[in-house]
Amino acid sequence: MSSNLRQPPRRHSTLRLFVFKAAETLARMLGGRAFYRSLNLRPGRFDVREELVALPPHCSALDGVSIVQLSDIHAGAFLREGDLGAIADAVNDLEPDLVVFTGDLISRNADESLLVIEDLARIRARFGFYAVFGNHDYRHRRESEIAATYELRGIHFLRNESVRPLGPDSPLVLLGVEDLEEAKSLDIQPAREELRDCDFEVVLSHNPSGARALLSPVTGLVLSGHTHGRQIDLPVLRDLGPHHPGDRVDVDGVPLITSHGIGVIGVPLRVRVRPEIVLVRLTAPKVDA
Ligand SMILES: [Fe+2]
Ligand SMILES: [Fe+2]
Question: Which of the following CATH numbers is that of domain 14-283: 3.40.50.300, 3.40.710.10, 2.60.40.1180, 3.60.21.10?
Answer without folding.
Answer: 3.60.21.10
